[in-house]
Amino acid sequence: MSELSRKAILGLHSPLARVVEVYEALASTQERARELARAGTPHGTLVVAGIQTGGRGRLGRLWGSPAGGLWMSFVLRPGFGASLASRITQAAAVGIAKGLWEIGVEARIKWPNDLLAGGNKICGILAESGVGQGGRLDYAILGIGMNANLEPSDLGVMDREVTTIRHELGRDVDLLLLLRVVLSNLAAALARIEDFETVLDEWRNLNCTLGQRVRVRRLGETIEGRAVDLTPEGGLLLATPGGTVELFEGEIEQLGST
Ligand code: BTN
After folding, report:
1. Most CB contacts within 10 A, which of 77, 209, 244, 248?
2. Of 30, 58, 62, 162, best ligand 1 pocket probe by most atoms within 8 Å of the beta carbon
3. Closest ligand 1 atom to the C-alpha of 61?
4. Residue with CA nearest ligand 1 atom 15
5. Is the pLDDT confidence value at 65 over 90?
6. What is the mean pLDDT of residues 212-238?
7. How far away, in angstroms, is 127 Cα from ligand 1 center?
8. Which residues pair with 72 in a beta bridge?
9. Tell me, what's the pLDDT at 209?
10. Is the pLDDT of residue 159 over 80?
């Protein structure tokens, strides 16, 4: 197994990892990346931690981050307007899914951007943006939590089904190799954000949501419908008895295929 050191990561020569910080343990790579972004670190800054003691997930959840995972956050300064920032998560999901397939994990994307293997979550994505003056996108922080060389039970997740690369492949993966394939696929997907239809076509090929009956809770009501397609900005179109509903964000429960 290769060492996931700063020097080894810089040696990958990725445009997403030109400035690299590696910690054995850190509260949250997301918070450290934000500090660096506010201090002016350039596009392509990567923070990696072996353990996070205060990892954060979407919707204010805790993100269990014991040893063996790949916990990391990127600082991106993509140079497009803030109106395109929401595209980052779905582009990232495509890039990471393709990286996982390269190492043998048959990953599927659950809308909007969870990565599942065998129906269980194997990777989470958290994209947050810092908007500057005039509505310009100053920076985006892209946090990725990959359940790699650990047991699902190590993650301490009670209410959701989770899996790990070790569990799916029956062996551990070299984290530097994993990072290399993720970086190359992620960079390619992010580079196509302004040509988003091609990203969404790949998303459609890799997803496990379209065609499913889904349930979503929003604004105090529960909606059920069939996920039929994506909008041009990556929203989810649900066919419900009351008509077509568009979801922009949130968490869906998949109820099975129709
Ligand atoms: C989700 O809820 O699905 C998103 C999880 C994102 C977790 C990653 S791990 C690296 C980075 N640091 C954090 O504190 N969170 C993100």
Report:
1. 209
2. 30
3. 2
4. 56
5. yes
6. 92
7. 9
8. 48, 144
9. 97
10. no
